[in-house]
Amino acid sequence: MLARVPLQDTVALVVAQPPTSNDPGGQREDFGKSSPLGLLLLVLFFIAVFFLVRSMNKHLRNLPASFDEPPPSDKKDDPSQG
User: Fold this and answer.
1) Distance (Å, whole) CA 13 – CA 9
2) Predicted TM-score (pTM) of this structure
3) Which of these, 20, 38, 67, 76, could form a disulfide with 34 (CB 3.0-4.6 Å)?
4) Which residues fall in a compositionally biased region of kind Basic and acidic residues (predicted)?
């Protein structure tokens, strides 16, 4: 079936691939350009982040300053004592 290939041979094959003469190295005619769809997605992302931060600030304002339990009061809440 499949024969084992030594690691040195595999690495040598990957590293030894010769570059082609007409390869621009990943910088083709579309390199560095973005589409209007990309701009729209970016603007929508920033709008969503704005509203999420605004909502988070509203929720954080409603939190108490401290989560410690209040000290017990000396008075007992007894409804019979008017």
Assistant:
1) 6
2) 0.47
3) 38
4) 72-82
Structure-block tokens of residue 26 = 């990943």
Report the distance separating Cα 40 and Cα 51, nearest Å. 17
Query: Tokens 């579309």 sit at which residue?
Result: 30
User: Cα(53)–Cα(79) distance, rounded to whole angstroms?
Assistant: 45
Please write the tens of the pLDDT for every residue from 25-65: 667 777 777 888 989 999 999 999 999 999 999 999 998 88
Q: Collapse the DSSP code of 71 into the 3-class scheme (helix H, G, I; strand E, B; otherwise coil) and give the result.
A: coil
Lookup: tokens for 17:
């691939």
CA distance 13 to 79: 89
Q: Which residue has the tokens 């009061």?
A: 73
